[in-house]
Amino acid sequence: MVALRQGQPQFRGALLGAYGGRCAITGTAVEAVLEAAHIWPHKGHHTNAVWNGLLLRADLHALFDLFQLTVEADSLKVRVSPALQGTEYEALEGTVLTVPATLDDQPAREALAKHNEDCAGWLWA
Q1: Using one digit for the tens of pLDDT, what is the confidence trace for 67-78?
Q2: CA-CA to 28 of 20 to 30 Å: which in 36, 48, 60, 96?
Q3: How far apart are CA 88 and CA 41, in angstroms?
Q4: Which of 17-38 are b and which e, b meaning 16 or more Cβ less than 10 Å from the residue's Cβ?
Q5: Hey, where are the domains in the chain?
Q6: CB 99 within 8 A of CB 76
Q7: What is the mean predicted confidence (pLDDT) over 22-29?
Q8: Where in this chain does the record put each HNH nuclease domain (predicted)?
Q9: What is the pTM of this model?
């Protein structure tokens, strides 16, 4: 059973609203498979802000958390680890992230930059 973090249902609800109920990468609109992904790791209620989240399909959320997939902070392009070459995920390379219309809800560039740094082993290799 998956542990439910405090505030997670509200965080997911806010992301569903901000992203129009669609995965920020694929556009998938099947709500049952959409998850609230933290860009900066969850450190309590204060990190459950829309600007610190991405609405992602469950498999992409897992890859994001495992640093096998990231979003470039400057271009908002999806980058996929070379370890995923030859898989269906390779096709996502270069996809531009869909972001909320409200500027304050868009992903924080500094949070994405930190995630990029955690992918440095392959991202800029």
Answers
A1: 999 999 999 999
A2: 48
A3: 26
A4: ebbeebbbbeebeeeeebbbbb
A5: 8-123
A6: yes
A7: 98
A8: 23-72
A9: 0.90
DSSP type of residue 125: -
| pLDDT above 90 for 34 | yes
Whole-angstrom distance, CA of residue 118 vs CA of residue 71: 12
CB-based contact 54:68 (threshold 8 Å): no
Give DSSP secondary structure letters for 46-110.
Answer: GG--GGGEEEEEHHHHHHHHTTSEEE-TTT-BEEE-GGGTTSGGGGGTTPBPP--SSGGGSPPHH
Joined tokens for residue 81 = 């680890």
Burial (Cβ within 10 Å: 0-12, 13-18, ≥19) of residue 106: middle
